Predict the structure.
Amino acid sequence: MRGVWLEQMGEPWAVQEVADREVRPGGVLVDVVAVRVPSYTRQVLTGELNYDLPVPLVPGPTCIGRVRAVADDVFGVTVGEVALCNSLYSSGEMSGSPDEILIGWTGSGSARSARMQHQWRHGSFAQRACYPASCVTVLPGADQWTRPELLPFLASLAIADGGLRRGGLRGGQSVIVNGATGNLGGAAVFAALARGATQVIATGRRRESLAALVELDPRVKPVVLTGDRARDGEAIRAQTDAGADLLLDVVGNTPTTDPTLACLDALRLRGTAVLVGGVRHELALPYQRIQRQQLTVTGSFMFDSATALEVWQLVRAGTIDLTRVRAHSYDLEHFDDALETAASLSGLDYTVLLPGS
C-alpha cells in the first residue's frame, strides 16, 4: 500500500510503498477515509517540536476509517462501518498513573510508553491503518455521509467538547474561547454554542477569522487581542455580564502567556479555566486572585469515545453544521502540498488527506 514513510527524525520523508497493515489481536483494521493534516505537521516530522516519534514509521494522527477487518476478540465493531479512530491509547491502569501515547504521533518518553509504541507504531498517513479496538468509535449513519472530507473535524469538536465537559459547562453560561481563530478554537466555538452557552467570547489576533465565527451565531462576541494583558482582559470582560463562567484555552504555542492570563482575568467569581492548547511556556498563575475568587484551573487532553459519539449525534441532528467548515483536500501523492496548505490556514479552514482517492 502507499503511505508516508519517515525513516529518521529530521530526514526527508517520502510517499512510497510501505508494508501493508494486518489486523492484530485486539485490533481493528481500517481503510483510511480522511485524516486532518494539523498546521504543525511539518514541525512534528522535522523534530522541531521534539515529539516522541518511534521512527521509522508511518506517522499520522486521529483519522476517519472504514472498517476492513476486526480481530476475533473484538465484538463491538463490524466490517463496513465508518469510525473515528482516536490516536490516544492508554495503558489503562485503574490504580497508579497510566501511560498514554498518540499512535503514530508521540509518546510520553517512558519505557512503558516505548513498549506501547512498539506494539502500536504506525499512524494514519497511509491507505490503511490498524488501531486498538478501544480507540475506535463507530459513527452510526456515517457510511451514508456524502462529504467524508468534513468528518475529521469531529476530532477537533470532541477535543473541544471534552474540555467544556471538564469545565462543567451548563446551558445559559458564558464561555471564553481563547485561540478561537485556530482550527481547535473554531471547533470550541461550535461546541459551546451547541451546548447552550448564552455568550461565546472568541479571542484571537486574526480579525477576519473572528468575523467568520460571528457569522455562525449572534451569541459569538469577538475580541481582537492587542498583546496588552490589562487592556485585553478589560475588553474580554466587557463582552460578558460581569465576567465569564468558563475559559476554554485552546491557544497554540504563543510567544507569551499573556493572552491566557488576560482571559483568566476576565473570569467571574468561582469561574473555571480549562487548558487544552499547545502553550509550551510556564504559566505564572495569580495565586491571590485564584484563592480569593475561588477559581478552578484544570487541564483536558484529547477525548473519549462517549464524547466523540455525542458530538457526532449533534452533527447528525443538525445542531452543529459541518458544512460551515471548509476542507482543503489532497491525495497521498500530494502530501507536501498538503503540508504547505495546512501551515497557512486558520479558523474554519483546514487541510485533509484522502488516502483512498
The mean pLDDT is 96. Residues 2-154+303-353 form a domain with the Quinone Oxidoreductase; Chain A, domain 1 fold (CATH 3.90.180.10). DSSP finds ten helices and 17 strands in the chain. Residues 15 and 335 are 8 Å apart (CA to CA).
